[in-house]
Recover the amino acids of this structure.
DNA sequence: TTTGCTGCAAAGGCTTTGCACGGAT
DNA sequence: ATCCGTGCAAAGCCTTTGCAGCAAA
């Protein structure tokens, strides 16, 4: 989580500044999506928000996540055969993607930052973002054998 | 393209060794998918193969690409709002993803290889693969202004 | 001859869209 | 009082699946 929008007040202000209305549903979606560290799916965000706003719709969740994505506050990560995940860390970092349990863990890595930084200077390619995934088996799954 | 399956004979042998029948459609899909450097979509593979096998179906293309993916000969790259792309280079490398024209270019990068290599030694995470994307605007698109 | 494979069509899953009502400003 | 946002349902898009005929081994 890299966002600075940690309070509802800041989220509301940010939404209005961008020309959006600060509805309770939107605020709740933003709060959860921006704070979550486990790269939730839209469905997961929906389930969580519904605990507070039982009538919220999945469509609203998708629309709000799209707003966050368009404004560079979260990144959508698509994977074959599964729902999209949303990452609230926009700084260069590595996603440790476990193929067994599906968990995704952010990992700070100086080498990754340096590697990405090289592209800021390049003339052949104007970098605007990145996605660095390492696929494998996480420690917890390894411990469980097989 | 990192695959060593450069001739039909080798593709046929490889398919049979894995217990698959070497049909003309499969061979054609494998040949194109393994040789292509521009990360084609399934539809693109379909269009290309159809030039030689006009009756081939998209379903067969998808099934064959799935076989290649399962055997680690290509990697499926999913992106928000667009069809999956298939990368025939399985070595650690960087995908330069142009947000304007949609092109994806493989880039060899020692820093990327080193960064990935670190994970081979890690005990906290057993690496089996990776996906390293840099998003931005490619040189050709930059030249075209705006 | 025996299966596995193909092509077609239908189904599936996730995400987006259309629309009328309701709420934020 | 505006008109944007919501929730519902329907549509969309890409991909997968079921199945009968056909072809590879």
């Amino acid at each position: 989580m890299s966002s600075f929008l940690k309070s509802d007040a800041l989220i509301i202000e940010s939404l209005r500044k961008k020309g959006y209305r600060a509805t309770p549903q939107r605020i709740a979606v933003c709060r959860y999506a921006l704070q979550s560290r486990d790269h939730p799916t839209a469905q997961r965000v929906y389930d969580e928000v519904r605990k507070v706003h039982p009538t919220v719709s999945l469509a609203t969740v998708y629309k709000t996540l799209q707003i966050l994505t368009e404004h560079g506050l979260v990144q959508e990560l698509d994977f074959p055969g599964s729902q999209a995940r949303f990452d609230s860390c926009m700084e260069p970092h590595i996603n440790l993607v476990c193929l067994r349990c599906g968990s995704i863990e952010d990992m700070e890595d100086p080498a990754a930052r340096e590697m990405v930084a090289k592209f800021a200077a390049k003339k052949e390619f104007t970098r605007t973002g990145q996605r660095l995934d390492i696929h494998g088996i996480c420690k917890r799954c390894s411990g469980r054998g097989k």
